[in-house]
TrEMBL record, chain A:
Family (UniProt): Belongs to the DeoC/FbaB aldolase family. DeoC type 2 subfamily.
PANTHER family named in the record: DEOXYRIBOSE-PHOSPHATE ALDOLASE (PTHR10889:SF3)
Gene assigned in the entry: deoC
Presence of the UniProt keyword Lyase in the record: yes
Major enzyme class: lyase
UniProt name for this protein: Deoxyribose-phosphate aldolase
Reaction catalysed by this enzyme: 2-deoxy-D-ribose 5-phosphate = D-glyceraldehyde 3-phosphate + acetaldehyde
Coiled-coil parts of chain: none
Short name of any one Pfam family annotated for the protein: DeoC
One CC-aspect GO term: cytoplasm
One Gene Ontology term of the molecular function aspect: deoxyribose-phosphate aldolase activity
Keywords: Lyase, Schiff base
Automatic annotation (TrEMBL), chain B:
Protein name in the entry: Aldehyde dehydrogenase family protein
Region of interest (Disordered), ranges: 255-286
Source organism of the structure: Streptomyces sp. NBC_00148
Domain (Aldehyde dehydrogenase) ranges: 24-256
A Gene Ontology molecular function term of the record: oxidoreductase activity
PANTHER family tied to this protein: ALDEHYDE DEHYDROGENASE-RELATED
Domain of life: Bacteria
């Protein structure tokens, strides 16, 4: 697989060429972007469309636990929930994946064997990414060896913000090479990139370097996925496919807690990238508490009465 | 307007989660006094307002039920203090709502203030009255304590718009429950103003949530709501009370039925002209402890005295 789409081979030839390319991307109209994200968030999705959206959103969740206090028991419990989110209703779809730290990947793989639910592992010194390249690569190798189907890496924000784009690019390329058949999600930590222009540049940088997914954030900083930054990234993957024919996935993560929020994101996907992305191969939610809210809304739709936190699992 | 000054009309709003929102539905309805003259518009709550109120009440439950009984008593007394300071306003609103003379309305407001004081005193005493050590035939120290039921939906009386209202809210929250209150449909203004008093009385947001609108429309989703633990049907007529009690059975809600009459209940039960009374209660009477105990659950612990160690001590 070529790491760079041929159309942009020149752009990644040198540090200065890459900088010229990224800074040559059109500037982001902040007011326009936020207004568009807000206006798409006002769509009213009801009844059968809502039921469809809820099931789709459940099937797109990367059910995540990234805590220092994670235990094998907790990972197994989360895996059981991913396979069978609502034990009272077997028609509930499975989540897309379970997302854990590399040392828990093997536990998750064993617990999910044969279920079709994938195992995603964060790597590259998540969440800060402050480690030497060979340490990061060892982290990735570890996760891949443990059987992870997907690797969620973080970019070096320090290098990105100081303008050393080629360093970031080469790091992503190196990680991609270690992934083998595992799909690579590249986390930008949009909350640390300061501007929308930077998010657009990071998106293109990630896509040029061979990311299979671009992902907003780690969930470990104050600002996580927002409708506006996700809209911006969806525009980037749309434009990238138009120019190269290569489709890239998008994963907003962190801070999406309610069904209402999730449906807003699905509207953004449909209206920006298009129906091709309305599939868990191309769009994911990085979330944990979101699933319970989706399940409660699902129960409300099927029974007609409001559900409560007593009727979903405590994670 | 002979002095040329424009009237400043008050916008009555709901009280949910410590805030004063309009109805999510955007609807209002006209409220008139006992002679049919327009007084104000009140928000007409929808089932989503009810849902939001339950979420707020659930969120407040941990803190409120965990507060010391002494602290709850202090806060309820504070409500009485704040109410006393706004006596004139409530006298006017009660006189308008119930068609009372100013002096009679003043007596009603005074009684309502006194009722807060009454229940403020009960917060740290009800435990001794309905709980305590039980004599058991075995080597056990056996202790029962009352605990609050949880989130309680309260249908306030339809006729007694203020004294009746206070008489159903105060006992529910005195014991540590949180409440979603449906105000009298025809006379909601004193209830909506009470929200302003509660908001300035150190009562944590969400402990009491006040909704106005059509009683049946708001009560139905509350009765079937899986995250509501009890329902007080005081403001429902016989037919509605029956429907709601059936819906409430689904998650085994604790139900407090409306009282039909105070006198000779055994005769009334056999009478063909059984009154379909709303407000069978005499709100000026000594309230007793019935409403305090309606939403309490008794927890009993058995502590083996034989396990106390070598000291040979037994309780």
């Amino acid at each position: 697989m070529p790491t760079t789409a041929p159309a942009f081979a020149d752009a990644t030839a040198s540090d200065s060429a890459l900088r010229r390319f990224l800074h040559g991307l059109p500037g982001v109209d902040t007011v326009g972007l936020e207004a568009r994200a807000a206006s798409l968030g006002t769509r009213s999705i009801k009844t059968t469309a809502k039921a469809y959206a809820i099931d789709l959103a459940i099937s797109m969740i990367d059910l995540t636990t990234l805590e220092g206090a994670d235990t094998p028991g907790k990972v197994r419990a989360l895996a059981a929930k991913a396979v069978n989110p609502d034990p009272t209703d077997r028609t509930t779809p499975r989540t897309a994946a379970v997302c854990v730290y590399p040392d828990m990947a093997a536990t998750a793989v064993a617990a999910l064997a044969g279920s079709g639910v994938k195992v995603a592992s964060v790597a590259t010194a998540f969440p800060a990414g402050r480690a030497a390249l060979d340490v990061k690569l060892a982290d990735v190798r570890d996760a891949v060896a443990a059987g992870a189907d997907e690797i969620d890496m973080v970019i070096d924000r320090g290098a990105f913000l100081s303008g050393r784009y080629l360093k970031v690019y080469e790091e992503i390329v190196a990680v991609k090479a270690e992934c083998g058949s595992a799909r690579l999600k590249v986390i930008f930590e949009t909350g640390e990139l300061s501007t929308y222009d930077n998010i657009r540049r990071a998106s293109w940088l990630g896509m040029l370097a061979g990311a299979d997914f671009i992902k907003t954030s780690t969930g470990k900083v104050g600002t996580n996925a927002t409708p506006a930054n996700t809209l911006l990234m969806l525009e980037a993957v749309r434009d990238f496919r138009e120019q190269t024919g290569v489709q890239i996935g998008v994963k907003p993560a962190g801070g999406i807690r309610t069904t209402k929020d999730a449906i807003k994101f699905l509207v953004l996907v449909n209206e920006t990238a298009g129906e091709d992305w309305l599939d868990n191969h191309w769009f994911r939610f990085g979330a944990s508490s979101l699933l319970n809210d989706l399940l409660m809304q699902r129960q409300k739709l099927s029974t007609g009465r409001y559900s409560g936190p007593d009727y979903v699992t405590v994670d | 307007m002979s002095d040329g000054r424009l009237s400043v009309f008050k916008t009555y709003k709901l009280y949910v989660g410590g805030k004063f929102p309009r109805s999510e539905s955007g609807r209002v309805y006209e409220v008139s006094d006992s002679k049919g003259r327009w007084l104000a518009n009140a928000p007409q709550s929808s089932r989503k307002d009810a849902r939001d109120a339950v979420v707020a009440a659930r969120k407040a439950f941990g803190g409120w039920s965990g507060a010391t009984a002494y602290n709850r008593g202090q806060i309820l007394y504070r409500v009485a203090e704040m109410l006393e300071g706004r006596r004139e306003q409530f006298v006017r609103e009660v006189a308008d709502a119930e068609g009372l003379s100013k002096s009679k309305a003043a007596a009603v407001v005074d009684a309502a203030v006194d009722r807060w004081v009454w229940y403020a005193g009960w917060t740290d005493k009800i435990g001794q009255v309905v709980g305590g050590a039980n004599p058991v035939a075995g080597p056990f120290f056996n202790l029962s304590t009352p605990e609050p039921t949880g989130v309680v939906a309260v249908l306030a009386p339809q006729k007694s718009s203020f004294l009746g209202l206070v008489s159903v809210i105060a006992p529910v929250i005195a014991t540590g429950n949180t409440a979603v209150v449906i105000a009298s449909a025809d006379a909601p203004l004193p209830a909506l103003s009470l929200g302003e008093v509660l908001a300035t009385s150190d009562l944590p947001g969400g402990v009491v949530n006040i909704l106005s609108g059509k009683t049946a429309e708001i009560a139905a989703p509350l009765a079937s709501h899986q995250d509501v633990n009890g329902i007080d049907l005081t403001g429902a007529d016989a037919e509605l009370a029956k429907e709601l009690e059936i819906a409430a059975a689904d998650n085994l809600k604790r139900v407090s039925r409306p009282s039909v009459s105070h006198h000779h209940p055994e005769k009334e039960a056999h009478s063909a002209t059984r009154p379909q009374a709303v407000d069978g209660d005499d709100w000026s009477a000594d309230p007793g402890t019935r409403r305090l105990t309606a939403f309490l659950e008794t927890k009993t612990v058995w502590h083996p005295t034989g396990a106390l160690g070598a000291s040979g001590s037994s309780y």
